[in-house]
Every structure is written in structure tokens, then in C-alpha cells.
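Researcher: Next entry in the queue.
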Amino acid sequence: MKKVFLNLLVVAAIIAGGVGVAIVGMTIRSRPSDAVITPEKKPLNIKVQVLEARMVEDELALMGTFEAWQDITLSAINQGVIALQSVVEGDVVEADQVLSRVDNGELLVTLAQMQAQHELAQSELQRVEQMQDEGIGTPQAMDRAKTDYRVAYVNLRATEIKIDDGLLTAKFGGIVDTVYQEEGEWVGVGTPMVRLVQVDRLKLVIGIPERDVVRFDLGDVVDIQLDAYPGEVFAGTIYQIAATAEESTLTFRTEIAVDNTDRRLKPGMIAQARLVREAFPDSIMVPLFSLISTEDTRHAFVEDGGVARQRELEVGFLQGTEIFVRSGLEHGERLIVVGHRDLRDGDLVDVREVLQ
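Model: Structure for this entry, 356 residues:
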């Protein structure tokens, strides 16, 4: 009996020891770690662009059409036969050059009569003046002779002017664009004869919107470009701005004077005029794609010592693929232009390329 009791004690001791070991094991496994190990975050690959301050101009680009500086159609003042047509289309003429002449037989007859009456009145005046000098003339005879002479002179000059009106002369130097009548044809008063255009200077006509017209003045310089001359810029000057807007477009007709001494430009050509609303010296322009927009703000990232820093921006007008930055960026900063979409303020970055 004593032996059985001893065996039970041994078994109980073994069981108690096993439970203790299990409890110790559980305690050891449930103890928290002394330190949490987190993996190191790798820098994100980026490309940057060094910002440079420059003169920035807020531009307004408008399409327009070239017109001749002067464009007139000369018409016949007298009726008659075209006795002379001295020009053809495309001729370059000088001011006061004779273009054509219309002869009127009735005027020529009238001119001969007026010349004869003038000569007669002049002779009569001389005879009366001689009689007056000899003391045998009368004041009434002298007055009548002077009056007759003045009337004859006026009639003669009026006839000469009418005949001179038959001469069609150039009002300015230019090019004969159209000759409407041929030599030998009979024309009436007001019949179109010759169209003359002045092209050594042209005017580019554009329409400035009402919101912008107050920004421009006479004398402002305008850059002009044409598809016909790619990459070339022509200079122009605003010389006229309409006082009222055109009803159909609500734009103000504006004429820009352009030198065309070499006659490379032609009336009817379409061109783009670049006008400057306002200039901003020492300003920043950035690629539009470098900005990140939210509902309330626009921001960008710059690289500073291997770290991405977020910048809140105030922006202005677009110019091509760039946008004007009013505030938020400075000259010399390294703007992140590639890899910025996944960045957060303070992220580590690795600059792989500096773009120009």
C-alpha cells in the first residue's frame, strides 16, 4: 500500500512539472518583441527641370486678312470715246501718271468757241482801255468790256477743266489691278475705268474682342506670322482701332500697318497677329503637365536635397503647353516633371535626369 502511494506521488509530480513547462512555454511565446522592424522605403525615380526666370508676355493671337493700303476705282468724268489707254493690268504707276484719256468732240468744239470769245473780249477790253487813255472812252464802256472779258475767261477755263477731266491720272503710286474698258470704247459719266491699289504698304485687319480692346493703343507693335512664310515674323503697328464694335461679331475692327516695300505680302493673304496684353519680367513658366490639380488647389513638387517638397501654386494664363506661375515657385528651384504623380510631401527621391 505504501508502494502504491509513492507511485501516485511520482505521477502527480510529473504531471505538475509538465503543466509548469507548458505554462512557461506559453508565457515565453506570448511576450511582445522588444523592437518592430520596418523595411526601408526606396527613393522614387524622378526627372527634374531647373526653373529659370524670364520675360513672360500675356499674348493675344488673332487671325486677320491683308488689305491694300489704298484701293480705289477711277471712273470716267466725261462721256466720250477712250482715245488713249496707256496701262495694262499689273503695271506699276507713279502718282499723277496718265492712265487713259476720254475725248469728247462736243467739248472740243465748245473749247474752240470759248477761245474765240475770250480773244474777242480781250481785244475789246484793250480797245476800250486805249480809248479811255485818249479821253474819249466812257466809264460804262469800260465796265462792260471788263465784265465781258471776265465771263469769257471763266467760260474758257470751265471748258478746259472739262477737257482735262477726260484725262484719268493715278492718285497715288501703286499697281493697276484691273482695266475695265478698252481703247476705242465709248463710255458714259461714271463708267469704271481703272482699279488702282497701293501695296508698298498693307494693312492687316483683325477684330479685337471687347474684353481686350482696352489693353491696346495706337502705335503698339504687333508680330505677324503667315503660313506662306513659316518661321518668319513680320513687324506691324496698330494705326487704327474702331470706335464702335461690329454688331455681328462684337469685335472692334483694328488695322495694323505693315511695310511691304519688297511686295512679298499680297492683299487677301491670311495672317496671325500676336498682340501683347501685358508683360511680366523675371517670371516663371512651367509645363502644364507638371501641375497636380485638386478641387481647391493646384500644386507641384520640387526636389530639395533628395526630398520631394510640395508647393501650392497660384497660376495664370496658358501659353502653348506652359502655364504662368504667379506665386509658389522660385528661380533656380528643381521642379519635378516626371514621377511626381505618386509623390507625397517629404518622400525620398532619386534624380535620374535634369531636363532643359
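Model: Helices lie at 2-30, 105-134, 139-164.
Researcher: Noted, moving on.
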